[in-house]
Write a structure and sequence with these properties.
The complex is a heterodimer of chains A (about 350) and B (about 230). In chain A, about 65% of the residues lie in helices and about 10% in strands. Chain A contains 10 helices and 5 strands, in the order αββαβαααααββααα. A 3-stranded antiparallel sheet of chain A has the order 2-1-3. In chain A, helix 8 packs across helix 9. Chain B has a domain of about 90 residues. Chain B is built from 7 helices and no strands. With about 230 residues, chain B is mainly alpha-helical. Classes of the chains: A mainly alpha (about 350), B mainly alpha (about 230).
C-alpha cells in the first residue's frame, strides 16, 4: 500500500470506528437545533422618500442545545418553534471533518490536511478583508466621502463629516490607490509613498506607547520597598514581612541583573559578569514558565477540540449537560461495555 | 526623488504623531493621521487579496503541482468575501429595520458567521492544538538537563505545568501547613510573581528601548532600510 493510500485508509478507519461506536450506542449524533424567533419593528414615515409608516416582520433562528428540542418535542410533538437546523448540522459535520483533517497531519502530510490549509488561507484572508471593510472603510472612508449613501443604506446614525474629515479621507483614498499600484506591472515604486506614511505613523505611535506603557510603567513598578512590613490588625507579622521583603528584593535584583545581561557595551567580567550570569538564571526561569504556559494553552485547545468531536459531534460525552441525562448515561454504559 | 519623498512622508507623519502626544492643540491632527492610517491599512487588505489572487491564479494557469488546492483557496476566498460584503442571511437591525445592510455582519444566522463558526474556528483551533504534540515532541528531543541553566528551565516548566493542574495539588497536598510554600500550586504562584515578573519586566524594558531607538532612527532619516535597496 502506498503512503498516501495508507494515510487515507487510516483517516477513514478512524472515522468509521468513531461512527461505528456511536451508531452502536444509539440516541442520535451530530445534529443541531435552532429556535424560531419572530421579530417585529415599527418603521416611521419618511417624508423625503414619501414612504408611509409601516411594520416590518422577520424570522430569526437561534441555535439551542438539543435538550431544548427534546423537551419541546416531549411537550408537543407537533411544535415548530424549535426545529432541526440543516445549516448548523451541515456546519457541525464540516467542522468535524476539518478537525480530523488537521489532526491527520500528526501521521503525515496528506491531501486532507492540505485541503484544510487551502480553505483556511482563502477564508481567513477574506474574513479580515470583510472586517476591515465594514469596521473601517464603511464608517470612516465611505462615511466621509459618500455620507448620504451610507446613512441611507447602512448607518443612519452616522454624523455628517466635517470638511477636515473629507479632506483627510480623500488623502487616505489617494494613499490607498497608490498602495494598490504595487500590483501594477509598472510604477510599483509609487506604493512606497503610502508605505512611508504607514511606517512613519507606526514609528511615531510606537515611540510614545512603548516609552509610556512599557519603559516608564515597568520601571516605576520595579521601585519596590525592599523592606515591606506586613501588618495584621496593626501588628507587624515577622514571617509575612520576611517573605514580602524577600520577594520585592528578588524582583528588583532580578530586573537589574537581567538588564545587565542585555547590556553589551561592557565586557561581562567581574561583578558585571556575575550579575549577567544571575540574569541568565532569571531568564531561564522566565522561559521555563513561558514554555509551561504555552504547553498548557495548547493542551487546553486540544481538549476543546476533542470535546467538540466527542460532545458536539458524536454525542458520546455530555459534560455541559447539553442533551438529556438518558443519552449521556447510555453512552457511558456502552463505552464501559466496549 | 524616489527615496526623498517617502523619507519625508515618514518623517512628517511620524513627528505629527509624536507632537500630538505632547501638545494638546495638535491632538486632533494625531487623531486624523490615525484615522488615515487605519483606512490605508484597511485598503492594504485589498492589496493582500489581489496578491493572493495573483499568486494562486498563476499557480492554476501553470498547472503547478497542487494547483487544485489553489482553486479551493480562490473559491473559499470568493465565497467568504461575497457573503461577508453582502451580509447574506444577516437578520435586520431592529433599530433600523428598513435599511438593507444595517444588520451586524457577524450576527447569528448569517452566512459569514456560519463560515466563521464551522470553517475558521475548527481549522485554526485544531492547528494550534496540534502544537501541543509538536511542543512536547520537540521538548523531549531537545531538552537535556546538562547544565544549571537547562535544569532551571526544565524544573520551572515542570513546576508550572504540575502546579496549575489537579495532579500538582494531589502530589504535594500531603505537605504540612508550615511547609505549604513548597506545595506545587504555591510554588508556581511564587515563581510567577517573583522570578517570572523580574525576567519579563527586563525583557519588556529591553523591547521598549529597542523599538523606541529603531523608531527614532526612522523618524530622523538615519534608518532607510524599509525603503529597500532598489531605486
Amino acid at each position: 500500500m502506498s503512503g498516501p493510500t495508507r494515510t487515507w485508509a487510516i483517516i477513514i478507519a478512524v472515522i468509521i470506528v468513531l461512527l461505528g461506536v456511536r451508531m452502536s450506542i444509539g440516541g442520535g449524533m451530530g445534529r443541531a437545533y435552532s429556535q424560531r424567533l419572530e421579530q417585529k419593528a415599527e418603521v416611521p414615515a419618511n417624508s423625503q422618500t414619501n414612504t408611509p409608516a409601516r411594520t416590518i416582520t422577520w424570522t430569526e433562528w437561534h441555535a439551542v442545545q438539543p435538550k431544548i428540542y427534546f423537551a419541546a418535542q416531549r411537550a408537543d410533538p407537533q411544535q415548530t418553534q424549535v426545529a432541526f437546523s440543516w445549516s448548523d448540522t451541515i456546519g457541525l459535520w464540516i467542522g468535524a471533518f476539518f478537525t480530523l483533517a488537521v489532526f491527520s497531519f500528526l501521521y503525515r502530510d496528506n491531501a486532507g490536511y492540505r485541503l484544510a490549509e487551502a480553505v483556511i488561507i482563502g477564508v481567513s484572508a477574506a474574513y479580515w478583508g470583510v472586517i476591515g471593510f465594514w469596521d473601517t472603510l464603511m464608517p470612516k472612508l465611505f462615511g466621509a466621502l459618500v455620507p448620504s449613501f451610507v446613512q441611507a443604506h447602512v448607518m443612519p446614525s452616522l454624523p455628517n463629516p466635517s470638511t477636515a474629515t473629507v479632506i483627510a479621507m480623500t488623502f487616505a483614498l489617494v494613499l490607498g490607490v497608490l498602495l494598490l499600484m504595487r500590483l501594477a506591472p509598472k510604477g510599483g515604486w509609487i506604493s512606497l509613498w503610502p508605505m512611508a506614511f504607514i511606517i512613519g505613523v507606526t514609528a511615531g505611535l510606537k515611540i510614545v506607547s512603548h516609552i509610556e506603557g512599557d519603559l516608564v510603567a515597568q520601571t516605576v513598578a520595579t521601585f519596590k520597598p525592599l523592606i515591606s512590613p506586613q501588618r495584621i490588625e496593626g501588628v507587624v507579622e515577622i514571617w509575612p514581612t520576611v517573605w514580602a521583603s524577600l520577594a520585592n528584593t528578588l524582583v528588583v535584583v532580578g530586573v537589574l541583573c537581567c538588564l545587565t545581561y542585555f547590556f553589551f557595551s561592557v565586557d561581562h567580567k567581574g561583578v558585571v559578569g556575575r550579575a549577567a550570569r544571575t540574569g541568565i538564571m532569571y531568564l531561564m526561569i522566565t522561559f521555563g514558565a513561558a514554555f509551561g504556559f504555552t504547553v498548557m494553552g495548547r493542551v487546553a485547545l486540544l481538549a476543546a477540540r476533542i470535546e467538540f468531536l466527542f460532545d458536539d459531534w458524536l454525542w458520546l460525552i455530555d459534560p455541559a449537560g447539553k442533551r438529556t441525562i438518558e443519552v449521556a448515561a447510555s453512552a457511558v454504559s456502552m463505552l464501559c461495555w466496549w | 526623488m524616489r527615496r526623498m519623498v517617502p523619507m519625508w512622508i515618514a518623517i512628517i507623519a511620524g513627528f505629527a504623531m509624536l507632537l500630538s502626544a505632547f501638545f494638546p492643540m495638535t491632538e486632533s491632527l494625531g487623531e486624523t493621521f490615525g484615522d488615515v492610517f487605519n483606512v490605508v491599512a484597511a485598503i492594504a487588505f485589498i492589496l493582500g487579496a489581489g496578491s493572493l489572487a495573483k499568486v494562486n491564479l498563476a499557480k492554476v494557469s501553470r498547472r503547478d503541482p497542487g494547483w487544485g488546492f489553489a482553486v479551493v483557496t480562490l473559491i473559499c476566498f470568493t465565497i467568504t468575501i461575497v457573503v461577508g460584503l453582502g451580509k447574506f442571511g444577516v437578520p435586520q437591525n431592529p433599530q433600523f429595520a428598513a435599511l438593507p445592510w444595517s444588520g451586524e455582519k457577524e450576527a447569528e444566522g448569517g452566512a459569514f458567521a456560519w463560515i466563521y463558526a464551522y470553517a475558521l474556528v475548527p481549522i485554526t483551533a485544531t492547528m494550534f492544538a496540534l502544537l501541543a504534540f509538536y511542543v512536547a515532541s520537540a521538548a523531549f528531543r531537545a531538552f537535556r538537563a546538562k547544565n544549571l541553566e537547562a535544569i532551571l528551565l526544565l524544573s520551572t516548566a515542570f513546576i508550572i505545568l504540575l502546579g496549575r493542574t489537579f495532579a500538582g495539588v494531589v502530589l504535594t497536598g500531603w505537605l504540612p501547613d508550615w511547609a505549604s510554600g513548597l506545595r506545587l500550586e504555591n510554588l508556581s504562584v511564587y515563581i510567577m510573581q517573583v522570578f517570572n515578573t523580574a525576567g519579563n519586566r527586563a525583557i519588556i524594558i529591553g523591547i521598549a528601548l529597542g523599538v523606541s531607538a529603531t523608531s527614532l532612527r526612522i523618524l530622523l532619516g538615519i534608518d532607510r532600510s524599509w525603503m529597500g535597496s532598489g531605486d
